[in-house]
Every structure is written in structure tokens, then in C-alpha cells.
Design a protein that fits this description.
60s Ribosomal Protein L30, Chain: A, 13% strand, Hypothetical Cytosolic Protein, Chain: A, four-stranded mixed β-sheet, 9 helices, three-stranded antiparallel β-sheet, alpha+beta, disordered N terminus
Length: 252
């Protein structure tokens, strides 16, 4: 299927377009196979302990998960996670920390914020309403991001400028609201009052989305996305929905 000109291409999309091999991994919880970049690696320590390895670079053996936090914790409670890890790692003496889900979420959050910081230092990320609006109207914005406590007026104004710059008026395209507030964003970027952010390079947008989409998926934040470009999911957090977590638990 043709990718519309305004859609962001992921690194997987680019690799497929060049005929390159895209590594795939199998989830130890569901058995599903997907590109490795969509999964989170769990590393096996020398003492049999399991630790998250979101960058996939820890030495030794590892296994992969492609589920959200609620599903992971339900599988852990039922013993399904340990069984899947034991089979994948060929290791019976496995110790899974009770706060594994929290550790994974913390690492995914840090990886995304670190990526934004790197793009800021590289000059591919801009902030400030006026600067972003000008870049958006010129068609230079590849990805639009907002702090969770950003005002509705600012969100609408910048989204409108983005649509105008991309000749995409009437599409309903919007920026993504991040699962962190302006204080956290400002600290991560070393900037004052970082409320709205824009990525002005296509490959930089790919890099940010690679981290952000895993973080959003794992936490349940923005799950119901309709717009592939602006949003990997809706702006509703599912991490605190105990009824949803209960439903997942009942499935195991």
C-alpha cells in the first residue's frame, strides 16, 4: 500500500523499501512475531535475574516481550511469563522482580526523553510557539509534540499551522501529547518552559517515534490512535485503569 506523502516512515519501512533484512523476534508471552524494534528485550543476568534492556545491548542471553504493562503483569502473576522465559532462555532458575513492569516503563520513558535531548542538541528539535508555528506553516515540521499539561488553545493553533503547511487542511491531523508535563520536558531538554516541541527532520522523527511508540504502547497511553502521522494512539492514559487490568488478568 502506498504511504501518503505526509506519513512518517519508520526505520522498518525504510529498510523494507531498500530490501534490507528486518530482524524479527517472538514474544514470550503471546508467541507473536514482529520486528524487533517493536519489542522490549529482557536480559538474563549471571545470577538468573531478569532485567529490562530496552536498548537491546546488554550482554548474554535475552528474550523479548511485545505486550503492554497490564498484560505483562497479569502474565507474571499467573506464571505465564516465567514459563515463557524459561522456554526461550533454556533456563529453569529464573528470578523475575515484582516491579519488572515499573522498571521497563522507567527505562522506556528515559530512552524517549534522552532521544529528545539528543535531537535538541543536534538542532533537529525546536520549541516555542512562535518558532514552531512559523516552521509548521512553511511545511518544515515532521512531528509535533506537546507536554501533557499544554493548553488546548496552543494545541489547536499549532495543529492548524501544521495542516496548513502540509496542505492537509480538513484532515484533523494533530500533534501527540506526551505522557509527561512541561516540568519534566524542560528538565530533560535543558530548556525553560518546554511545552510544545517540533521535529524538523524526517529521520529524526523516525528515531523519536521508535522510542515514543514503544513507551506509549507499554503504558497504554494514547492507545486509540487514528492518525498515523500525528498520533500513534489517543491521548487517554490506561495505566490507572484497574478494570482494564482486571480484564487482562482474567484472560490468563
Amino acid at each position: 500500500m502506498r504511504t501518503p506523502r505526509n506519513d512518517q516512515l519508520t526505520e522498518t519501512d525504510r529498510a523494507k523499501g531498500r530490501g534490507q533484512h528486518v530482524p524479527e523476534r517472538r514474544c514470550v508471552v503471546t508467541g507473536e512475531v514482529s520486528p524487533a524494534e517493536q519489542f522490549v528485550r529482557l536480559a538474563l543476568g549471571p545470577d538468573g535475574s531478569i532485567a529490562p534492556d530496552v536498548h537491546g545491548k546488554a550482554p548474554g542471553r535475552g528474550a523479548w516481550i511485545g505486550v503492554d504493562r497490564a498484560t505483562l503483569e497479569a502474565a507474571h502473576a499467573k506464571g505465564k511469563l516465567k514459563g515463557g522465559l524459561a522456554r526461550a532462555l533454556h533456563e529453569g532458575n529464573i528470578a523475575i522482580p515484582d516491579d519488572l513492569g515499573e522498571r521497563i516503563e522507567d527505562q522506556l520513558r528515559r530512552a524517549t526523553l534522552d532521544r529528545l535531548g539528543l535531537e535538541s542538541r543536534a538542532g533537529t528539535l525546536i520549541s516555542g510557539n512562535d518558532k514552531i508555528e512559523q516552521a509548521a506553516r512553511r511545511g518544515q515540521v515532521r512531528l509535533l509534540l506537546h507536554a501533557s499539561d499544554a493548553g488546548e488553545d496552543g494545541l489547536k493553533k499549532l495543529a492548524q499551522a501544521w495542516r496548513v503547511g502540509e496542505d492537509d487542511e480538513g484532515s484533523g491531523r494533530e500533534g501527540q501529547v506526551l505522557p509527561v508535563d512541561r516540568g519534566t520536558l524542560s528538565m530533560a531538554l535543558g530548556r525553560e518552559n518546554a511545552v510544545h516541541l517540533a521535529i524538523v527532520d524526517a529521520r529524526a522523527a523516525d528515531r523519536v517515534l521508535a522510542h515514543l511508540s514503544r513507551w506509549q504502547f507499554f503504558t497504554g497511553w494514547s492507545r486509540d490512535a487514528a492518525n498515523r502521522v500525528s498520533s500513534t494512539a489517543s491521548r487517554t492514559s490506561g495505566t490507572g485503569d484497574t478494570s482494564a487490568a482486571s480484564a487482562v488478568s482474567d484472560a490468563f
